[in-house]
From TrEMBL:
Gene Ontology CC annotation, any one: outer membrane
Record keywords: Cell outer membrane, Membrane, Signal, Transmembrane, Transmembrane beta strand
Name the record gives this protein: Translocation and assembly module TamA
Domain called Bacterial surface antigen (D15): residue spans: 434-728
Protein's cellular compartments: Membrane
Native organism: Brachymonas denitrificans DSM 15123
Length: 728
């Protein structure tokens, strides 16, 4: 069964599938340029593929005015097209005039070339890819040889213009000199070739016919997929016909087939009929979807050190479900993020021996080492030099869980923690147990905290969830010798959602985080309390439309509903933002606004003694710049800064790229204003403490590095701040 679509109004696409051209003559007409380009041309191609390996061929053949599509003319080989396949600016190919492998005979030029055209894009195209430019370095050309080159150059020009949809150009070439070599040798002016090109009308797409065969035509669950391919065709009616766009459109449609259910889909036929008289193109494309593939058993290779059941749980492909390429990518990423594997490859078996109704899922892994020891050094303007030691044992001998020990020391904070993390269960939840000891000194106050935590956690691609019981013991010493001791037991839930276009250098998207907790103090009295904290970080791109930029920087109403109802699946189904590419980075001109908001509160009766690590302080590199680390708090009767029950903080930052030679560099200029406050009562949060500053951000190979100078409005001090990396 074959389903046939006639294209009317479709969208654009961006994939690429190179397809060479062949020109074939048709009926003779009285034009001044070669017969092979006089009449209608057919651009035909075939593509066969297995596991996304595609080869294509296209040809230009005659389209007689009578409607007879047959022709006995001998087609010209595609190889004679003089490297027109890369004839577009920015494609990474070597310009004709800069090819060092062509001829090293002369370091100078034997003649000049001047290209004139009313279309700037056409002039740039010819200036970059004209084959004639390669012969400028040949020093011994005589007059006859140069004129022969001009004859061949006209064919090359027509081929280049044909890739951009111009099939009826007017071309005039003039040689304004005598013998090139003698003129150059005499030291006089070089001969000049003047090429004048009027490209004529650009060919546009008149009609598109999409044909599908295979299981997709009679498998109801695939009908939406078929509709998306149809509506997403990349070269719709009315668009200019260009060779790259033609190849891109075919590739995108094929990928749409292979992305779900049909990994062995292939392009069986493609044809573009060009009519130069009307400057129009009629396209016909045929695909064979092949059979529907469903998941079968998981077959594992490379599992020796760790239990293979970990791979089965992380792969998460239900047997009997329809194949999706996204499932393979997500499974592979989960394996890599688990910490048990340094390499992973996941695919469905599409070999001829495989049964599509029960196709094995092939998983090949490279296991991580059993133990890892990491020494680290660092520096921050908040806490000075820092040293750390991390030890990880992926399969400790008692429970078989992962053991993680960390020691970190700087002038403000010294901390040691040990944790156990179980392998994931069938739903990817893990048991965790953690113990830590921390000493921190802020100004005249020293905090000694011991903490125990036991619970479960689930870390996914964009959502992290953790719930746990926590015990806290806190001892606070003041310089006057006084000491406060407190204990608490609490139940907590932490939820984080990230939707950034990059986890390293985001320029668009947002993240939100929520913390909820409740418990009771154990010392010096038993007092119930509740705790809540929320945070938001958004990037508003100024290179996009306002509505589009805001839509990416703010949660949608359905996102907020999913947050309120705990519908993690609803958020997981949201389409990911497109990651930055080399081309999008080059288009980054106006930069972005970065907005950060934080709020937190702890609710308990007045006079209740709460462990300090459950309360709030702010200030420093990552919060309110212009103030010292954790300098913003509540001042007690003795003048000491202590944590408070309520906290608000926010920041508005503008980043704009610095330009070198007209292109954005790896450096951004940064301007910002920060504000924050801590109090024991909501009404005491005003006035906010404000800091303003400016600096630079370097997009280093290991992550963003931001350096800035900030002035605290209330503190009346200037501070240097440095931030390394990006986390949320």
């Amino acid at each position: 069964m074959c389903v046939h679509f006639r294209q009317r109004a479709l969208l654009s696409a961006t994939a690429r599938l190179p397809c060479p051209l062949r020109f074939t003559p048709s009926s003779c007409r009285s034009f001044s340029w070669p017969l092979p380009l006089l009449a209608g041309v057919v651009l035909a191609g075939a593509c066969t593929g297995a596991q996304a390996q595609m080869n294509t061929a296209s040809e230009l053949a005659p389209q007689p005015a009578s409607g007879d599509t047959s022709s006995s003319a001998q087609a010209k080989p595609a190889a004679d097209l003089a490297q027109t396949g890369t004839a577009t600016d920015g494609d990474g190919s070597t310009p004709a005039s800069e090819d060092p492998a062509f001829s090293p005979i002369s370091q100078g030029k034997s003649f000049d070339i001047r290209i004139e055209s009313p279309d700037d894009e056409v002039r740039k195209l010819l200036d970059r890819h004209l084959e004639l430019k390669r012969y400028q370095k040949v020093s011994d050309l005589d007059d006859a040889e140069l004129r022969q080159l001009l004859t061949n150059s006209e064919t090359n020009i027509r081929q280049l213009l044909g890739t951009q949809g111009y099939f009826t150009p007017e071309i005039r070439q003039e040689l304004q000199a005598h013998v090139a070599s003698s003129a150059a040798a005499a030291g006089g002016p070089l001969p000049e070739v003047v090429i004048t090109v009027d490209p004529g009308p650009r060919t546009t797409v008149k009609q598109v016919d999409l044909n599908f065969a295979g299981a997709i035509t009679n498998y109801p669950p695939a009908l939406p997929q078929l509709g998306e391919i149809y509506n997403g065709w990349g070269l719709p009616q009315g668009d200019p016909f260009m060779q790259n766009a033609w190849s891109d459109a075919k590739t995108l449609a094929l990928r749409g087939l292979q992305a779900e259910r049909f990994p062995t889909a292939k392009l069986t036929d493609s044809q573009a009929v060009i009519d130069p008289d009307t400057s129009s193109a009629s396209l016909r494309i045929s695909y064979d979807s092949g059979p529907v593939y469903k998941y079968g058993p998981v077959q594992i290779k490379g599992a020796e050190r760790y239990d293979p059941v970990i791979i089965e749980r992380l792969t998460r492909v239900p047997r009997g479900a329809d194949y999706k390429q996204r499932d393979m990518v997500d499974a592979q990423q989960r394996l890599l993020d688990s910490g048990y594997y340094t390499g992973a490859f996941v695919s469905v078996d599409t070999s001829p021996e495989s049964n599509p109704e029960d196709a094995p899922v092939l998983v090949q892994v490279q296991e991580a080492k059993l133990q890892k020891l990491v020494f680290g050094v660092g520096f921050s303007t908040d806490r000075g030099p820092r040293v750390s030691i991390d030890h990880t044992h992926n399969k400790e001998p008692v429970f078989g869980w992962r053991g993680i020990n960390k020691l970190q020391v700087d002038k403000v904070r010294q901390a040691f923690s040990t944790a156990l993390l179980a392998p994931p269960d069938d739903k990817l939840w893990r048991w965790l147990a953690n113990a830590s000891v921390t000493r921190e000194k802020y100004g005249d106050v020293t905090y000694n905290t011991q903490q125990l935590r036991f619970g479960r956690t689930k870390l996914e691609k964009s959502i992290d969830r953790t719930y746990y019981l926590q015990y806290d013991h806190d001892s606070v010493r003041f310089n006057d010798g006084t000491r406060d001791v407190s204990q608490a037991l609490s139940a907590n839930y932490v939820w984080t959602y990230r939707r950034f276009n990059s986890q390293t250098y985001p320029t668009s998207g947002y993240g939100i985080g929520l913390e909820l907790g409740g418990g009771v103090t154990l010392q010096p009295q038993h007092t119930p309390f509740g705790r809540v904290a929320a945070r938001y970080l958004g990037f508003l791109s100024l290179d996009e439309g306002l509505r589009e930029g805001v839509g990416k920087a703010l949660p949608l109403p359905k996102d907020l509903k999913a947050v309120a109802t705990g519908n993690a699946a609803g958020l997981s189904d949201q389409p990911l933002l497109q990651a930055p590419t080399s081309s999008s980075v080059l288009k980054r001109r106006n930069g972005e606004l970065v907005v950060r908001l934080e709020g937190a509160g702890l609710y308990a009766k007045q006079g209740a003694v709460i462990p300090s690590n459950l309360l709030f302080l702010t200030g420093g590199d990552a919060t309110v710049r212009g103030y010292g680390y954790q300098d913003i708090g509540v001042e007690d009767a003795n003048g000491f800064i202590t944590p408070g029950r309520y906290m608000v903080a926010g920041s508005l930052e503008y980043r704009r790229p610095l330009f070198l030679r007209g292109r954005p560099s790896d450096w951004d200029t940064v301007l910002y204003v920060d504000a924050g406050s801590v109090a024991n009562r909501p009404q005491d949060l005003r006035p906010l403490k404000v800091g303003v500053g400016a600096g630079a951000l370097w997009r280093s190979p290991v992550g963003p590095v931001q350096m800035s100078v900030a002035y605290g409005i209330q503190s009346k001090k200037v501070r240097l701040h440095m931030n390394l990396g990006f986390t949320f």
